[in-house]
Design goal:
heterodimer; A: about 375 residues; alpha+beta; Rossmann fold; 2 domains; six-stranded antiparallel sheet; 8 helices; 22 strands; globular; B: about 280 residues; mainly alpha; MetI-like fold; 12 helices; about 0% strand
Chain lengths: ~375, ~280
């Protein structure tokens, strides 16, 4: 099913004032797509999900399932959740504590008074799919976190919804269980082909699960794209730092033109990176920009590059396979990933990076990236 | 004596005194009820056990004790059920819907409940006379519902507000209407709170004296507290033994109810609803 969101806004009015939780967001989610809403806490991603579910009424804009309008305040249309046939998995699981697992899963079917035999068959196949058939008689209180999670997913899927909504479903699980459930969830979604909207603040989840990601900040849609795209070609410093772990290094710089050659001059360090002609549109000249470079694209070098940076190692974080080194330079602390274990605290370090790997952003204060390279 | 033992001793002694203080009147009531001589505490009369007080109270048609008991149970149960039903609808709306001025509404109700009953009873008498309801069940049920509603509402609001909002959302998503959520999800989950409130409202109505005295005239609708109070003077002397026997019997329904509901009230039914 195609989900279309157009110019959607939600304003909460409380005694303490107004909060614009969602501001003019437009999105199209394609049939069968696994679409992730990503953003820091308070960015409006859960509100957006609740608007799609019908738990909240939008202040403005329009939500459509295929061609059916589900909510459009200007046209006076609002369909409550039960007319939308959507299913939702909550972060808290929200299982009914007075019902056992079987009745929890059967609940959505019983509410619509489905045929008894049909209910039984559907509940059992759904439970089998999630491998919880042996838990049917238990109450939610007698289940572990992971088991509750599965029951919540089974209850959501039992109705074969048009749209599958998940609100941070994995954040209450421990790390190991989380990565396992992630894989299962992705396979399950692929197998059922249900259009899915998934809310998370965890960029790893977003990257691994999503066909596409929408990045939100302060209620605004910052950018939309495939995980690969967002990683390789972030169009804003926000996306650049939010996606990828450890985050991208950002260095303020300005553009200087010397004859036909164009350089990005980093901070006060007077380190120049030559930009190739096609990289630097004329509009860039003399303007302040932000240079971004991912920690994995920086290497240590003994010989000084003409465009390198030098500094001292101020912290070392072992990550197992490699080390995350904090290097104090004139342009601030730069994060570097290195497999080399010989570096020690306080060592002098010369950093070099491939000019083809750097990203240019207009400036830090204004989040519109102008051009990126890789 | 170490500190731990000392502390425990103090706790036990104080708790024992408190229990003794609370239960002594009941003990006295029960002993007197079973005593042949009501003034058994005076040194020259020995305590002699008997069941005659109870048999008189239960058998003597002129005392109408069983009628009073039946009236009390029916009136109290009806008021408790009606009061809790409306209170739970209101509590659900107050805790779940975004209504303007909720807090004002709650305090207004609290303020109204502080109105002394004695200032209302005169008007109630006129009203019930005009309606022709004097000495009928509704004459007591309606005031009792009004009188116990604020209490029920406040208890249920605090109980409902602790039920996670996500359960309502899950219900809405799963296709319930608001009313279905209340009946299929909130009621079962809040069952301990509902039963506790029912019990309290029942006890309040069961013990009420003033309205029952003013709005009833005979055993057709008179409740136990009034009935027992009016025992005295019937036979020229105060029949302490029978009064105490009747009072003992009157506590039975409440004690039985408390024992039945105890398990349900204590049970933590919200366990495992959401991850804490």
């Amino acid at each position: 099913m195609t989900l279309t969101i157009e110019h959607l806004s939600k304003r909460f009015t409380t005694l303490r004032g107004r909060v614009d939780a969602v501001r003019d967001v437009s999105l199209v989610v394609h049939p069968g797509e696994f679409f992730v809403l990503l953003g820091p806490s308070g960015c409006g991603k859960s509100t957006l999900l609740n608007l799609v579910a019908g738990l909240e009424k939008p202040t403005d804009g329009e939500i459509r399932f295929e061609d059916q309008i589900m909510a459009a305040p200007r046209k006076g249309v609002f369909h409550p959740p039960r007319q939308r046939n959507v299913a939702m998995v909550f972060q808290s699981y929200a299982l009914y504590p007075h019902l056992n697992v079987y009745d929890n899963i059967a609940f959505p079917l019983k509410v619509v008074r489905a045929d008894k035999k049909n209910i039984d068959r559907t509940v059992k196949t759904t439970a089998a799919m999630l491998d919880i058939e042996n838990l049917m008689a238990r109450k939610p209180a007698e289940l572990s976190g992971g088991q509750r999670q599965r029951v919540a997913i089974a209850r959501a899927l039992v109705r074969r919804p048009r749209l599958f909504l998940l609100d941070e479903p994995l954040s209450n699980l421990d790390a190991q269980l989380r990565s396992r459930t992630r894989v299962e969830l992705k396979n399950l979604q692929l197998q059922l082909g249900i259009t899915t909207l998934y809310v998370t603040h965890d960029q790893t989840e977003a990257m691994t699960l999503g066909n596409r990601i929408a990045l939100l900040k302060d209620g605004l849609l910052v950018e939309v794209g495939t995980p690969e795209d967002m990683y390789a070609r972030p169009r804003s410093t926000f996306a650049a730092t939010f996606i990828g772990s450890p985050p991208m290094n950002l260095i303020s710089a300005h553009i200087r033109q010397e004859g036909v050659r164009v350089f990005a001059v980093l901070g006060d360090a007077q380190t120049k990176i030559e930009l190739k002609k096609h990289m630097a549109p004329d509009t860039l000249s003399q303007r302040k920009i932000t240079v971004g470079i991912r920690p994995e694209h920086i290497h240590f070098s003994d010989k000084s590059f003409s465009w390198g940076l030098s500094g001292r190692i101020s912290a070392i974080e072992p990550l197992g396979r490699e080390y995350l080194l904090h290097v104090q330079t004139d342009c601030g602390v730069i994060l570097v990933l290195s497999a080399d274990k010989h570096y020690k605290f306080g060592d002098a370090a010369a950093l070099g990076f491939d000019p083809d790997r750097i990203h240019l952003f207009e400036s830090r204060s204004n989040d519109n990236g102008i051009q990126t390279f890789d | 004596m170490n500190e731990e033992v000392f502390k425990n001793t103090i706790i036990f002694v104080v708790a024992g005194l408190a229990i003794l203080f609370c239960l002594a009147p009941f003990g006295y009531m029960i002993l007197t009820g079973f005593s042949r001589h009501p003034d058994f505490l005076s040194p020259d009369t020995p305590w002699v056990g008997t069941l005659s007080n109870f048999s008189t109270v239960l058998a003597a048609a002129s005392l109408h004790f069983t009628a009073f008991l039946r009236n009390s149970i029916i009136i109290s149960a009806a008021s408790a059920v009606i009061s809790v039903f409306f209170a739970s609808l209101a509590a659900y709306a107050i805790t779940r819907l975004s209504l303007p001025g909720k807090l004002f509404f709650m305090f207004l109700i609290l303020a109204l409940s502080m109105f002394p009953p004695v200032s209302l009873v005169g008007y109630l008498f006129k009203l019930m006379t005009a309606l022709g309801w004097i000495n009928t069940y509704p004459a007591l049920i309606f005031p009792y519902v009004a009188w116990t509603l604020p209490l029920s509402l406040w208890i249920l609001v605090s109980y409902f507000s602790r039920i996670p909002r996500d359960l309502d959302h899950a219900g809405l998503i799963d296709g319930c209407s608001r009313m279905q959520i209340l009946i299929k999800i909130i009621f079962p989950v809040a069952a301990p709170g509902i039963f506790a409130t029912l019990l309290l409202a029942f006890i309040f109505a069961f013990n009420e004296f003033l309205f029952a005295l003013m709005l009833t005239t005979d055993h057709a609708a008179r409740t136990i507290p009034v009935g027992i109070a009016l025992f005295e003077g019937l036979h020229g002397q105060i029949p302490w033994g029978e009064i105490m026997a009747a009072a003992t019997l009157a506590t039975v329904p409440v004690v039985v109810l408390a024992l039945i509901f105890q398990r349900r009230i204590i049970q933590g039914l919200t366990r495992g609803a959401v991850k804490e």
